Amino acid sequence: MDVISVSREASQNQTQLVWKGEPDLGGWYTEEEVEAAETAIRNSMDWRRGFLPHQEITSFETEFAAFVGGRRALAINGAGTGLDMAMRCLDLSPDDEVISCALNFPGTHLAVLGQGARLTLCEPDPVTLNIDVADLERKITTNTRAILVTHMSGLAADCNAIATVAARHAHPVHGPIKIIYDVARACGATYDGHRLGAEGWINVFSFQRKKLMTTLGEGGMIVCSDDETSRKLDQLRSFGAGEGWGTNYKLTKVQAAVGRVQLRRLDSMNAARVRRARLRTKALSDLAPIVQLPTEREGYDHVYYLYCVVLPDGWTRQRRDHLIIEMLRKYNVECKVANGPTYWENRLIRRFTEGQRLPLAESIGSRVICLPLHPLMTDEDDEYITSAFRDCLKLEVARRGCDLEACY
Ligand SMILES: *Cc1c(COP(=O)(O)O)cnc(C)c1O
User: Fold this and answer.
1) Most exposed residue of 53, 104, 241, 276, measured as fewest CB within 10 angstroms of its CB?
2) CA 80 to ligand 1 center in whole angstroms
3) Which residue, by CA, sits nearest to atom 12 of ligand 1?
4) What DSSP element (H or E) covers 222?
């Protein structure tokens, strides 16, 4: 039986499902969000005024831009949308290349293919799981237009090194290589003493239901440092604003009202998550010689959107999947793989990246496993999860060498 069918079986028996896999645990709402949503609706009950969104949206944008230290923030209906908008602003031709780490959220790479450009994949750093900057530089050609960087599990990529590499090269026609950051998993994280969100050319955030802060299921924000691009993004968001092509990518007023509350609470929600993750790493520290636990870096605030463990060198994908199945079968703890190379998860990406070789990404993608983590977990919750992991890992290690299929 594979991971998906075991997971489906467990989901069908809701009473047995103890832990949804991170990041499916969802957000953290309080009465404050309920009141904000209610107020936004009540303020719209006068039929002469209607559901005018402007003030709530503008306030959310202003507060968000100030929070991340960005020049201009635009509220949108999701990060997927934001990545599409960013790629559209590049005005890509079929020969143009966008470089991105192979370990990624597939939707991030679809944004490149969606605009008809070439997707060039590069290797991850084996410890941070973020883009490997040396490999990034090796992959730059005269067709490179942009670098698309995801801060993978809540830990910032090395933005300064990426900026340095980008500045050493230029496109012969379009000039400087643009850097686009996918900050969907790192809202509130810091790098080099400041918040992520003001680096590079465009930063895209997600407030989807799984993320660090959420706006009733869907939502996002684009932060851009360049005024001309901000105007273009604004046009794209709202039917071209009389100037050109655009459609409707807007966030609603009620979502913005909730987002303002979530933004105020973000640091404390993240702090609880970080505390839980650090306690877990301490509790699992005796396993460190066997598995690679998440690490923090000087000058970076990890916000632990994901708690990623990398299994020992030499373990196969099948063996990792077996461990996931055991966690679910024995303990009802659902673990995720976030993420393998995107071409494993999406056929379109596979078709358009055929022939590219990423041995390190494939090796890490075969061995990464994310244990569920949520800021509201108690010590007892965490003890249950870590004990389950410890037990399943021990069994799997003891089984080393045997044919996994034959174990059933
Ligand atoms: C969730 C996620 C997205 C997509 O965000 P939506 O708001 O759901 O469109 C993009 N990139 C990464 C890295 C994500 O984790």
Assistant:
1) 241
2) 6
3) 184
4) strand 220-224
**Which residues belong to CATH 3.90.1150.10 in the chain?**
3-24+267-400
Q: For ligand 1, atom 2, name the residue with the nearest CA.
A: 184
How many CB atoms sit inside 10 A of residue 373's CB? Answer: 25
Is the model's pLDDT at 406 over the cut of 50?
Answer: no
State the closest ligand 1 atom to the C-alpha of 338, by its place in the atom list counted from 1. 15
pLDDT > 70 fraction of the chain, expressed in percent and rounded: 92
CA distance 362 to 162: 22
Q: What is the DSSP string of 121-148?
A: EEPBPTTT-SB-HHHHHHH--TTEEEEE
Angle at 155 between CA 149 and CA 158, to 5 degrees: 50
Ligand 1, atom 14: closest residue by C-alpha? 184
* Closest atom of ligand 1 to CA, residue 152: 13
Looking at the DSSP bridge assignments, the partners of residue 194 are 191
Whose C-alpha lies nearest to ligand 1, atom 8?
208
Output the pTM of the full model: 0.94
pLDDT average, residue stretch 301-306: 94
Q: List all residues whose CB is within 6 A of at least one atom of ligand 1.
A: 78-80, 105, 107-108, 150, 182, 184-185, 206, 208, 220
Alpha-carbon span 108 to 150, nearest angstrom: 8
What tokens were used for 101? 């780490």
CA of 286 to the centre of ligand 1 (A): 34
CATH number for the segment(s) 31-262: 3.40.640.10
Residues in the chain: 408
Average pLDDT over the chain reads 92
Domain with CATH 3.40.640.10 in the chain: 31-262
Give the CATH architecture of domain 3-24+267-400.
Answer: Alpha-Beta Complex (3.90)
pLDDT of amino acid 330: 94
For residue 274, the number of C-alpha atoms closer than 13 Å in the C-beta half-sphere is 18
Among 182, 214, 250, residue to substitute to test ligand 1 (most atoms within 8 Å of Cβ): 182
Tell me the pairing of strands 175-176 and 170-171: antiparallel
Residue 407: predicted pLDDT: 36
